[in-house]
Amino acid sequence: MLFNRREKPSLLAKIRGFLLPRAGWRRSAIYIGHRVARLPGTPASIAMGFACGAAASFTPLVGFHFLLAALLAWIFRGNLIASAIGTVVGNPWTFPFIWVATFEVGARLMGYDASSDAVNFSHFFNALWHSVTHLKVRLFTEQVLPVWLPMMVGSIPLGLLVWAVFYWPIKRTVASYQHARVARRHRKAVKADGERRHLVERRAEAAAWAESPPSATKGSASPPFPPVAMMLAGPEGKGGVSSSSVISPSSRQRS
């Protein structure tokens, strides 16, 4: 396919490119912003979808963030593509901070006397994976549930906060972007219409001159020249002449 890479990057290269973008984090963020602003839909639906994706990334449902974000966007009439893009808020660089924050908030809300320093999240997700894939209920209740439940409870208020942080700024930004885009298209259309009207007027003048050309003035060796628009109105041999054949009156008199 056109513009595809000759050599496909390996899995390690894809992971390295995701963690450390070659274009830099700033350019990557600008690119994501343009992608979000160019999505089809109203500013409210786009902002709702992105905010739902960002909120879903705060839940401990790792591996199901896309589905949860799409479900929330569908319920609240948000943009589904924007919800998928919004899940980039939860990434390998932010997940450690998100997990610690959700566990601390959830433990306080549930009245647990526990600290995130005593939780090994690597061991926790490993136990979660084995308990789900091998249907080990005892492993889930003893090692997974005491950590997963506070994280799930804490993700609710933090997710609502993140939703509010992203929704209104993105809504205003997308609205401004779409307004500027419509205004730019309107200016281009007005400019093109003005050029078309000017060309039509020039052609009308050339047609009027061709129908009744004015006679030569007294003492003049040659009749006045037609408008340039007539001379260049058509291809050579069909009522028009090439630009190389247009000469000034003074040079013609000298010849």
Structure description:
The longest helix has 75 residues. The C terminus is likely disordered. 66% of the residues lie in helices and 0% in strands. The chain has ten helices and no strands. Helix 3 runs antiparallel to helix 4, helix 4 crosses helix 5 and helix 6 crosses helix 8. By secondary structure, it is mainly α. It folds into two domains: 148 residues, no CATH class; 49 residues, no CATH class.
Chart the SSEs and their pairings.
Blueprint: H1 11-19, H2 25-37, H3 43-56, H4 65-75, H5 80-86, H6 95-110, H7 121-133, H8 137-211, H9 228-231, H10 249-254
Helix-residue proportion = 55-70%
* Number of distinct helices: 10
Beta content comes to: under 5%
User: Structural class, please?
Assistant: mainly alpha
Please give the radius of gyration in angstroms.
34 Å
* Largest sheet: number of strands, sense, barrel closure: none
Element string (H = helix, E = strand): HHHHHHHHHH
Domain unit count: 2
Mean of residue pLDDT? 76
Spans of at least 5 consecutive residues whose pLDDT stays below 50 are 235-255
Instruction: Tell me the distance between the termini.
Output: 61 Å
Q: What is the strand tally?
A: 0
Overall body shape:
elongated
Attribute tags:
single chain; 255 residues; mainly alpha; 2 domains; disordered C terminus
